[in-house]
Design brief:
With 280 residues, the protein is of the alpha/beta class. Helices cover 30% and strands 13% of the residues. A six-stranded parallel β-sheet has the order 1-2-3-4-5-6, covered by helices on one side. Helix 6 links the parallel strand 3 and strand 4. Helix 7 crosses helix 8. The N and C termini lie far apart (102 Å).
Length: 280
């Protein structure tokens, strides 16, 4: 039998391998994070209003992220992580329980893990959030307080919180039991030291605004600045006992004094009610 001639032998060449397809998500994560940081360089603050807590996590991100970062859910979540990491998160509501439920919506605790700078100017740390044993029946029930939020943020570095006058009120004839005279009483009423359970905090800013509660020097003869210092001293003492490096900044806005004599006897007094040291 004759063998086929070479001219009739078929030769099949392998098809060339297509070049690898490079997409944004094929880039290393650290490179993508650098791109997110560049695109979000002007997004330095996240303001969460009380009404925002009724929206979903993805709806919130769609409202706040640049359109170039809304290509798909994966990119949106990665960009949202960078957004929460690099921006100052401010909650403008007065109740923290809706904020807690809102942050719980983000997949894989993304928001909780990412927050580095948290400001809670609207919510005031007050005696009604006490969880201590023996709480009176007429005390408002414990719901959610600053420490409940702070301990959920493992990367939290800076925290700003406000205080209500009923944490450290002056003695009142109608309710003498409300008077706080010693640091241990402050802690017993507020569980204030639980804020320190977050071990990564490096800056704690404490604010007190007497003007917000229409407190005036004509209404009560109280040195609010001294009371505020007494209340926050328990924090500083515990920080020292733990040997931690945590800076505490006090910001006080005092009520205006209308007495010219009082202005003269108080060096450095600012008639507009602004404390001459710090407030912002």
């Amino acid at each position: 039998m004759a063998t086929p001639s070479p001219a009739h032998t078929s030769h099949h060449k392998p098809s060339p391998t297509p070049p690898p397809r490079h997409t944004f998500t094929s880039l290393p994560r650290e490179v993508r994070d650098e791109i997110y940081a560049h695109l979000l360089i002007d997004h330095t603050r996240i303001s969460i209003r009380a009404s925002d807590t009724n929206t979903t996590a993805f709806t919130f991100l769609k409202r706040h992220l640049p359109s170039s970062l809304l290509l798909n859910h994966r990119i949106m979540l990665e960009a949202g992580t960078a957004y929460f990491e690099h921006a100052a998160v401010t909650f403008e509501g007065t109740r923290l329980l809706p904020l807690k439920h809102f942050l719980d919506q983000f997949p894989e605790n993304m928001a909780w893990k990412s927050i580095r700078n948290l400001e809670l100017p609207g919510h005031e740390y007050a005696a009604r959030y006490a969880k201590a044993a023996g709480t009176k029946a007429n005390t408002m029930p414990y719901t959610c307080c600053v420490h409940d939020i702070a301990i959920r943020c493992p990367g939290l570095k800076t925290l700003t919180m406000a205080f209500s006058p009923n944490v450290y009120p002056a003695p009142a004839p109608c309710d003498p039991m409300m008077a706080i005279t010693a640091p241990w009483e402050i802690e017993g009423k507020t569980n204030l030291l639980r804020v320190l359970e977050n071990q990564n905090l490096v800056l704690l800013t404490l604010r007190f605004d007497a003007k917000r509660h229409a407190i005036s020097h004509e209404d009560v003869d109280t040195d609010w600045e001294e009371l505020f210092a007494r209340c926050t001293a328990v924090l500083e003492e515990e920080i020292g006992r733990q040997g931690r490096t945590l800076e505490v900044v006090r910001k006080v806005k005092l009520p205006p004094q209308r007495s010219t004599h009082a202005w003269v006897t108080r060096p450095g007094y600012v008639p507009a009610g602004m404390h001459p040291l710090v407030w912002g």
